[in-house]
Write a structure and sequence with these properties.
This protein is mostly helical. It has 2 domains: 193 residues, Alpha-lytic protease prodomain-like, CATH 1.20.1510; 110 residues, Alpha-Beta Plaits. It is built from 9 helices and 3 strands, in the order αααααααββαβα. Strand 2, helix 8 and strand 3 form a beta-alpha-beta unit. The protein is elongated, with a radius of gyration of 27 Å. The model has no long low-confidence stretch (mean pLDDT 81).
Amino acid sequence: MRTMLIFSIVLMVIKFAAYIITHSNAILTDAFESIINVVAGGFALFSIYFSTLPKDENHPYGHGKVEYLSVGLEGGLIVLAGGAIIVKSVIGFFHPSEIHSIDIGLYMSLFAGGCNYLMGKYLIKQGKSRNSSLMVADGKHLISDTVSSIGLVIGLVVIYFTKIYWFDNVIAILFGTFIFYTGFKLLKESVNNLLDEADYEKLDQVVKILNEFRKDKWIDMHNLRVLKYGSHLHIDAHITLPWYDNLEESHAEVTAVENLIKKKLEGEVEFFIHADPCLSTSCPICPLKNCRERKHEFSKRLDWTLENLLPDKKHTL
């Protein structure tokens, strides 16, 4: 992240230099967004450090949620920048400024956009491998910045050949609106994560792993929840095990589930599993052979899905 921050500072200087040379509002939109990249990058660097601090008495689930605060800050700054760009561009229709050296600004913007794309792809890749929402969000922001840079370059080419300079404000308003929308999405994502919104993609991944490696002794499972704390995952579940197993045997099965998920999912995983004893109503869905306490014949094995694993309710036929 330190390298990304240094790159962001260099690109910010390049973009503001391009604005000073051209006086183009469209280029200024790109420069404004670079300020956000630098501020957000600095806070992101601190957040990633803070999120890796070990759990303590005041933070029993760790410090990972600070990443979502950083994403929210970045989203808020982007919303403000987008609004400021739109306002300045509207004013530009009534008080136009002279635009010159478009070709130089075009080359500088093209170079900055290419750098943003490479950095964005790298951050998304690293964020997914480390299970970091903050790095993925920063990567997506840089990719969106690249898209706006491509549009900016196209707009500058049009202005360069047509000499229609008021089109500069039109481009700036369009990209200001795009930037505003990008910031709003990041803000929404930050709030949802802070409120522990269900991550259905991660839940679906857990369900597929459980189904693929399911043991006969794992009769049933319900009340499955996945909470994200930065790069850490906290998973809750209730598992139904044979009632006649002793505590040591039941603990071994719970540990087997934990180890399975930790092995298959990347990043640190904390599993809290509540073991329930099977009931006579569990017999029709219990595939255990030679069960000495079976009350009813086995009918069929229940496939685990998001629909039947998420509710806090034991299953039966």
